[in-house]
Each structure stands twice: as structure tokens, then as C-alpha cells.
Amino acid sequence: MTTLKLVGSRWRSDTFRRLSTRLENILGSKTAKLFEPLKVFTVGDLMRLVPRRYFSGTELSDLSVLRDGEEVAVMAEVVDAKTFNLDDRPYVRARSKPRLEATITDRRGNVVCTFFGQPRLIRYWQDQLHPGARGIFAGKVTRFNGRLQLAHPDFVIVNEHGDVIGGTRRNAALASASNLPLVGLYPLTAKLRTWTIAECAALSLDSLAGIEDPLPERVREAAAVMDLESAFRAVHQPTDKSVISEGRQRLRFDEAFALQLTMAYRRADAASHRAVPRTRRSGGLLDAFDERLPFVLTEGQIAVSEEIMTELGRDRPMQRLLQGEVGSGKTLVALRAMLAVVDGGGQAALLAPTEVLAAQHYQTITRMLGELASGGTLGAPEQATGVVLITGSSSAARRREATLQAASGAAGIVIGTHALLSADVQFADLGLVVVDEQHRFGVEQRAALSAKADPRPHVLVMTATPIPRSVAMTVFGDLETSTLREIPAGRAEVSTVVVDTVRQASWVQRVWQRVAEEVGQGRQAYVVCARISSAGSTGADAENLDGDSDAAPAVAVEDLFQELSSGPLAGLRVEMLHGQLPGDAKDAVMSRFAAGEIDVLVSTTVIEVGVDIPNAAVMVIQDADRFGISQLHQLRGRIGRGTHPGVCLLLTTASDDSTARQRLDAVAATRDGFALAEVDLEQRREGDVLGATQSGSRSSLKLLRVLRDADLIAQARTLAEQCIAQDPELNDPCLADIVLDMEMDAAGDWLERT
Predict the structure, then answer these.
(1) Cβ atoms of residues 550 and 146 within 8 Å
(2) In 3D, which of 174, 170, 166 has the Cα closest to residue 197?
(3) Model pLDDT for residues 311-338, shown as the tens digit of each residue
(4) How would you class 136 by CB atoms within 10 Å of its CB: exposed for 0-12, middle for 13-18, buried for 19 or more?
(5) Burial code of 633-662, b = ≥16 C-beta within 10 A, e = fewer?
(6) Are the C-beta atoms of 689 and 475 separated by less than 8 Å?
(7) How many CB atoms lie within 10 A of CB 549?
(8) 4: DSSP letter
(9) Average pLDDT for residues 210-226, to the nearest whole number?
């Protein structure tokens, strides 16, 4: 039994065959294409595209939340409608186009809707938009003369019951009266309006009439949820607000149960495979390494290491997540596990997400091992092994030599990027796969590397992003979790200061003075930017997380490097690093920085994880509001790794009351990564929890929120485990299809790219 055997299978149940019906078969190809920007391709996708809000005919939207550039649908009341340049006499030529300006209100504030058209259309719209009329207005928010407006929005007029009684001619024909007391406002695009979505949802609902519920009755009863068809009708055609809540609860449970059933199946799958026990050997490589350590392991490192060693000694594959604070010594724990596997006659592969990080791991591990990494060379110690690096930019000769050492077994430790997944990379006896920064990968990459060995290798996943339990249970539900919270002795304190570059403009000069002072005392500094070049957005490493289209473009690495090296930091050894540099150039820059030959490194987030320069004591993060909490915490973790106190300066133009400023203040207030993880999760959506991208794909959580729904997720996990225990081969066609649906989503991008 393997998870991927399901991918490519046919649906076993009529329910999933009907839910997977392509929208073009129900709506026609022209209308179906309009849904693609919303990642809605099937009937099931459309059923889970639920309205953001519901209104009765007497409720109004909050217009204060509108933002420039958004596509919105709002329920509002007309205040007045005035015409301009409206003279349809054939011999009179207007100086400007005829237009109508209708002011709509939520009783607290106003927004102007502007319409252009022929005089007869203007008069028709004015008749529809009489004072007191209520309607749904859909369009793009723009700014004109300093105020927000809706430029030529589509609209329908509704009565107090929510029935459509008028509007633009085109939309009045599209939106048949539903005779329902509640009107749902859906997410929309420029070409797809909320009433069109409602009509398409109604057609899709009709196609699902009489479907069998995919959940076993015992599961529905234990979860106290309504049947699936009723849930779809409750969210798309509600009769009152209470049924909306019940319908959403069912759909949230479905998400949680599908995730947990898939994770439970994966755990059962892993447990069904055999692995070679890798028991620690007395007097071997690990003992030789431990004798050379110049420090004592923390209690946490010892406890987690023993946990890992125990699992490595079993005959089924270890599946473990090692998470910990920045600088807690995860790499050391992972290295000791790799050495134990080498002592047991196997090899270890370390998969890193970037070439910079892979190179850093190679340099760190070879430095820590010293002559113990010189296996196969003249005069090497008896216990020594080979350590090789394989990346996409490796030269042909270097790659050929490294792959030969991996295939022959001469290299006990093989470090690399996605290049390790290539067909030409083979192992003599792969015993352990270590995946660093798992959130940069998906389960499928992990599985592809594991597939290079039979029996299965043990798997250790590392992340420096502290993960709340509810997230770990969801995102890493197929792994057991170990946590390192203790920071090794000797690490310095790091203070963090938010610098408002608008109201504290003079502080910016002081920032660069502080950098120069630290360098003058023999320290080194990082300056981090959100993008590479000012010539377009290519190569951007961060984005404006708050969607403010008025925000000035982020400062680019290339521009700031020139400005600093010829200005406030002239005379210092300033160099630049970003992801678009050739691999050899990146390695050379990092090597010189590590050797102390560079004073200030102006970089993108390629230095976010794994880079260990104990002499780096100051970090300046330009446009810090463009980064998320987790990323800021990771970046800050690059300093204070030695004995010198560190300072992290967060430069921002964000206003005090903005969400972005709240993020920065949270980071400045604490170095507790687990506390910051909770704040981070409250502010943003979770990404793809199963697939290769970990963000933005169709399998991203829709209604489920791992903090709010932690109890629901825990309940779903228990019920899923019961289902797998009773039916480990998924003979129930609906349960098999639930897992198949999740795995097809998760594997889609991965299979296409390979």
C-alpha cells in the first residue's frame, strides 16, 4: 500500500464522480472559464465557494472597508443619482461624455458610483437608482480626486425580501429572483459577478440532487453534522442564518476530516513498510564526533537525539518532525542522526530548498566533522566518511564525481537541493533522508527521495519555523513531532527596534551610522531587501502582505547596494547577494562573508535560514512591513549567534494603526518563536497543507482555520484514525475517494513538473 498508488485511479463512488464533473459540462465552456481565476474547475469546487457574507433586504455593507484596487460586491442604499452632460438633441455636441453619478451609502459613509453611456441608458440607470433604492453593486474600487469610487459597476436592485426587481438590463436578465430571504455575496472577479455565481451554484446544486453522503453515518453522527447535499443548499440557498452556520460547519468538518483521513492513511502506509534498523555502533563515527565537540549538548538536544536514535533502531521507517527555535541546534541533532546511520552501514541525504542553504550545510557539516569528513582520502581516520554536495549549478565534473561517490557508498553524507531528486543521483544504501525547511517542499518531494531506497529510509524533517500544535497536527499530521526550545549557552541577546522612516526620517542616517560603528568594532552586518531589482517585479522575495496598492515599491537590493557602497557605508567592504546570481558567485560571496572578508552583506532573503556567521551582530531589514512574522523571526535569527549582543533594525513606512505595524511590533516585543507563530497564524491564512507548493494551490484551506478549529481538527483526527483502523485498505469507495481527492490536489503540481 502506498499513497501515490491512489493517484491516477478512477473514482469509485458516484458521489465523487458527480462532484468532479467539470463546470463546462454544467455551465458551458464560456461561463466555466470565468471561474478559473477563482481556482474553481469542478462542481465540487463551486459548492465549496461559499458567500463571504449574507444580507437580508434590510442590511447594508460596511463601505469603510473598501480598498483601492479591490473587486467588490456591496449591498448599499442609493442617496441620489445626478446626470451630467446629458443632452441628446442631435444638433448639440456635448463637450464631455454623458455620465451618471450615483451616491450609495451604508448609513455611515458614502461611495460614488460613476456610469458612462448613451443618454437613453443614463436615463434608464437613473430611473433604477432612485433615492431609497437598495441594491448589490459589483465592480472595481478606484480612487478619483482623492476619494474612492466604483467605476461603472454592475448592479441589481433588490426588494426587502432580497428578490431581484431591477438593475442593469444585462444583469436583470441573468439574476432570476430566488425568493430567498438572504442574499449571499460571493468572492468575485472583474468578469464574474456575485449574482452570476449564485445562478451557477443553483444549476450545480440541481445536478447533485440525491447524491449519497460520502461520510459514513457513524462519522456524521459522532461529528453532529448535517448531510452533504443539505449543507450545500444551506450555504448557497439559505432559508435563515441558522442553516448557514450548520452548512458551514459541515463543510469545515469535511476539510478537517479529509486532511486527517489522508494523514492517517499516510501514517498507516509508512508503518506498513520495512526499514533497515540503524543501531548506534560503539567506537564508530558518532562517538569520534562527540569526542571532538568543544561544548556540551543541551538537555533538549540529548533527549531528542535519544528519541531519534531509538526510532532509527527499529525495523519500520522513522517519520519525525524536528522543530525548534532559531539557533536551538537542530542541525547538530540531525548530523548526529546521520552519523549514527553511517555507523549502521547506511547513507544519509540532506535535502535543502536553496543552493545557498545547501552550500551552508555542506560547509557547516564539513567544518564540524573536520578530518572525519575526509573518508576515502589518504591519511583519513578509520571512522571517516565522505561528504559531497550536489546542486543544479554544480559543474559537470564535480557533479559526476559526487554522484559516483553517492552511488558507490563512498559518500556517507550527501547534501543537495532538488538536484538530489534527479534520476542520475542514486545511492548504495540510503538509510536516512533529512529534509530541511519542510515548508519549502511538499510531501511528494520527500516521497520521491525516499523512493530511491528499498527498504524505505528513515525520514527526519526539520523546520526552524515554530509550529503551534494545531498546525503541526494539520500540516505535518503524518509525522511525529520533537521540539527543541532550549538555546545553547553562549548565545548573545538580540534587541529589535522598529524605525519609522517617515516620521523618524533622521533615524535612517543613524541606522547606517550604527552599522558602521559595529563594523568598526570588528563585527559584520546584514542588510535585507524585499526584492532584487527595481526594473519590474521579477525576483521579488517578499510582497506587500496587506495589499496596499498605494504603497511605494520596495527598495531593491541592487539599488541599495549602490547607494550604501557609494554613500553612508563608503570605505567599508560591502557586497551583494541574491537568488539570481550564478551558483558559484553566491557560494563565493557567502564564503568570503563567513571568512570575515566582507563587512556588510546587502541581500534578499536567501540568507533567511541556515546561514551561521557568529561574527554578524547587526541586521537592517528594509521595508520590513513587506515580510511576514515568521520570515522576520527567521531573518533575525541570523545575528546574535556568537557572544556579541545583536541589534535588528526594522525599517518601515507603515502607519501605527496598520496590520503591518502590528506585525513589526509583535516581532520587536519578543524572541519567543512559538508566541510569534500564534500571532502569525492569527493574521494570515494557512497555505497548502499537503502539496508541493505549500501555498496558493487549489488544496489550500478554504473554510477551515487551524487556530479557531483546533478542536474540530482533533475530533476529525480521532474519527479518521478509527476509520483507517477499521478499513486500512480503504475498501469503502467514498473514503477511498476522499483520500484520492486530497492526494490528486496535493500531487497535481508535482506530477506536472516531473
Answers:
(1) no
(2) 174
(3) 999 999 999 999 887 777 888 999 999 9
(4) buried
(5) bbbbbbbbbbebebbbbbbbbbeeeeebbe
(6) yes
(7) 11
(8) G
(9) 96
> Given this structure, which CATH class describes domain 285-484?
alpha beta
In the predicted model, is pLDDT for residue 310 greater than 50? yes
Instruction: Give the CA radius of gyration of the chain.
Output: 30
Strand partners, 389: 415
- Of 690, 678, 575, the closest CA to residue 633 belongs to 678
Strand extents, DSSP E, 375-429: 386-390, 411-416
> Is the Cα dihedral 471, 477, 482, 488 positive or negative?
negative
Torsion of the alpha carbons at 498, 504, 508 and 513, rounded to the nearest 10:
-90
What is residue 117's predicted lDDT score, i.e. its pLDDT? Answer: 87
Distance between CA atoms of 116 and 101, rounded to whole angstroms?
A: 9
Residues 6+ apart with CB under 8 A from 521: none
Q: What's the N-to-C CA distance of the chain in angstroms?
A: 22
Are the beta carbons of 420 and 351 closer than 8 angstroms?
Answer: yes
CA distance 243 to 247: 6
Q: Please check whether the two domains, 285-484 and 494-683, share a CATH topology.
A: yes
b/e burial code for range 439-461 (CB count within 10 A of at least 16 → b): bbbbbbbbbbbbebbeebbbbbb
Kindly report whether the peptide bond that precedes residue 455 is cis, defined as omega within 30 degrees of 0.
yes
H/E run at residue 680: helix 673-683
Whole-angstrom CA distances from 256 to 263, 668, 713 are: 11, 34, 5
Domain 53-185 adopts which CATH fold? OB fold (Dihydrolipoamide Acetyltransferase, E2P) (2.40.50)
Residue 329, all three cell numbers: 541546534
Residues 6+ apart with CB under 8 A from 315: 274, 275, 276, 277
Q: How far apart are CA 3 and CA 376, in angstroms?
A: 39
- Cell triple for residue 493? 541577546
Parallel, antiparallel, or unpaired for β 183-185 and 53-55?
Answer: antiparallel
φ, ψ for residue 418, nearest 5 deg: -55, -20
Q: DSSP letter at 42?
A: B
The model's pLDDT over 436-475, given as tens digits with 9 standing for 90+, comes to 875 555 566 777 788 888 889 999 998 877 776 667 666 6
- Report the DSSP pairing between strands 616-621 and 524-528: parallel
Q: Are 211 and 15 in contact (CB under 8 A)?
A: yes
In CATH terms, the superfamily for domain 494-683 is P-loop containing nucleotide triphosphate hydrolases (3.40.50.300)
Q: State the Cα angle at 100 between 96 and 103, rounded to 5°.
A: 135
* Angle, CA 321 vertex, CA 332 and CA 635 arms, to 5°: 65
Write down the domain spans for the chain. 3-49+212-269+707-753, 53-185, 285-484, 494-683
In Å, how far are 104, 432, 539 from 453, measured between CA atoms? Answer: 66, 10, 36
> E strands, 96-226, where?
99-105, 110-116, 134-144, 147-151, 154-158, 164-167, 183-185
- Burial zone of 43 (CB within 10 Å; 0-12 exposed, 13-18 middle, 19+ buried): buried
- φ, ψ of residue 272 to 5 degrees: the values are -80, -10
As a whole number of angstroms, the distance between CA 214 and CA 741 comes to 12
Query: Whole-model pTM?
Result: 0.69
- Which DSSP letter does residue 433 get? E
